[in-house]
Write a structure and sequence with these properties.
mainly alpha, Cytochrome Bc1 Complex, Chain D, domain 2, 2 domains, two-stranded antiparallel sheet, about 5% strand, elongated, binds heme C
Length: about 120
């Protein structure tokens, strides 16, 4: 009986040791889609998604709240735009690529976030 209790205690300590650091990493590493949007996208697309910022007008950023534009795009299209960016037909960059800065998981979450801005 006593053996069992100490075994349980050991298991518990073990679980805490495993859960502790991983939980902390999760908190510091993965940003919420909202945070990622504010960090990487607002300069061009604006906090409201309408793209009426200085850089947004200059680059021709799309209005992310415009249902007609966004509804035509599949999740895969939006994913690719965020991951690989957009160039115009002269090969000049219009929208940055985020393949290096964001994980696929974060990009997927941003796809859903963009859809949620659409009216
Ligand atoms: C340097 C300015 C800039 C930044 C930063 C930027 N975008 Fe864009 N975005 C654009 C431009 C310009 C377009 C329009 C591209 C076109 O018409 O070919 C666009 C288009 C889009 C589209 C329309 C998708 C499509 O396939 O047409 C989505 C969705 C989008 N951006 C989301 C984002 C998200 C999410 C971020 C942040 C991770 C982001 N953008 C950061 C400039 C930017």
């Amino acid at each position: 009986m006593r053996l069992l209790t100490s075994l349980k205690l050991q298991l518990l300590l073990c679980a805490m040791a495993v859960a502790g650091p991983t939980a902390a990493v999760a908190v510091t590493k993965a940003l919420s889609p909202q945070e990622n949007y504010e960090k990487h996208c607002v300069d061009c697309h604006g906090a409201d998604g309408k793209g009426q910022t200085r850089l947004g007008r200059k680059s021709g950023a799309k209005d992310l709240t415009d249902g007609k534009t966004i509804a035509k795009l599949s999740d895969a299209d939006i994913f690719k735009t965020i991951k690989f960016g957009r160039k115009n037909n002269k090969g000049e960059e219009k929208m940055d690529a985020f393949a290096d800065g964001l994980s696929d998981q974060e990009i997927n979450a941003l796809v859903a976030f963009v859809r949620s801005m659409t009216k």
